[in-house]
Design brief:
single chain; 340 residues; alpha/beta; D-Maltodextrin-Binding Protein, domain 2; ten-stranded mixed sheet; 10 strands; 39% helix; 19% strand
């Protein structure tokens, strides 16, 4: 066999040079290089089919609304459907476990709220490791919390509510959509010396329906889901949980301003993938999500709903969540709050 008749079988992505004197790349080698970097299963081709975005809470809540806004933008920018899959159960733990156990290929993602960190902060027995079993992608948004009551409750301020709760211990019920709203209310109770009974729900949609119907009387709820009901008069807002006032409700005082100095609580949302998801996949979703949440129209919509866009790198998001776990663990220990 002469030299020109010899053929070399290339490794995927490796340049193959001609046996001739010029040393130029043959056309077939260029094709193989392209296939090696963008062939089936390559992260550079991601996504090439629909992506499932698990939201481990009920539809119509604040986290669900943020998830659907983000999913719509990702669908548009990647030309592949990002489908929201609500899995409300056990304060987000069931849905989170589905993602922790999913194939780390970028086609099953998770969008969660503050309860993701609080579950770990309270020392709950979890079927996954909150820090090791998830790859951080992006911090999507921050939401303020509102202290709201049913209009029939004889309280038009925080001081009124505290006086009523002290006069009638355990007579009032508060609803929570997850630990992200339960722990801020437990912190309020600890700081005011009040006794208000806890009624947990699988999401803010069902909880707000019961609050509007009068089955429960009080809640610390995400502004993004509560503000429409406050504006319609179906709920009465007493105060903002954040350290600063809301741009949408500027006349509403903070809880700290209303006789509970030092009180501060907010709720955040963000995205994760299963651990060991390829870095290029994480980078692609992060870039598309940051572009979406920081766009002018997306920002305006979030602010209108009582939330603010976030962003940042996966590393920054991972560090933030670690800090949140530590923060809520300290708060829970100081206020003697334990997991249900």
């Amino acid at each position: 066999m002469n030299a020109d008749a010899r053929r070399v079988v290339p490794w995927p992505g490796r340049a193959v040079r001609s046996a001739g004197p010029t040393g130029r790349l043959r056309p077939c080698a260029v094709v193989l290089i392209a296939l090696g970097f963008a062939g089936p299963g390559s992260s550079l081709a991601y996504p090439d089919r629909p992506v499932r975005l698990i939201v481990p809470y009920a539809p119509a809540g604040g986290t669900d609304l943020v998830a659907r806004m983000v999913a719509q933008r990702l669908s548009e920018s990647t030309a592949q459907p990002f489908v929201v899959d609500n899995r409300p159960a056990v304060d987000g733990i069931v849905g989170s476990e589905l993602v922790a156990r999913a194939q780390p290929d970028g086609y099953t993602l998770l969008l969660v709220s503050t309860s993701h960190a609080i579950n770990a902060a309270l020392g709950r027995k979890l079927p996954y490791d909150t820090l090791r079993d998830f790859a951080p992608i992006v911090h999507t948004a921050n939401q303020q919390l509102l202290l709201v009551v049913h209009p029939a409750v004889a309280a038009k301020s925080v001081k009124d509510l505290v006086a009523l709760a002290r006069a009638r211990p355990d007579a009032l019920n508060y609803g929570s959509s997850s630990n992200a709203t339960a722990l801020p209310m437990e912190l309020f109770k600890a700081m005011t010396g009040t006794r208000i009974q806890h009624v947990p729900y699988k999401g803010s949609g069902p909880m707000l329906n019961e609050l509007i119907g009068g089955q429960i009387q009080v809640s610390v709820a995400a502004a993004i889901s509560a503000i429409p009901h406050v504006r319609s008069g179906r709920l009465r807002a007493l105060a903002i949980g954040d350290a600063r006032r809301s741009t949408e409700l500027p006349d509403l005082p903070t809880i700290a301003e209303s006789g509970v100095p030092g009180y501060q609580a907010t709720i955040w949302t963000g995205m994760f993938a299963p651990a060991r998801t390829p870095t290029p996949v994480i980078a692609r979703i992060n870039a598309e999500a940051v572009r979406a949440v920081q766009s002018a129209d997306f920002r305006a919509k979030l602010i209108e709903l009582g939330a603010e866009p976030a962003g940042g790198t996966p590393a920054q998001w991972g560090a933030f969540v670690r800090e949140e776990i530590d923060k809520w663990a300290r708060i829970a220990k100081s206020a003697k709050i334990v997991a249900d």
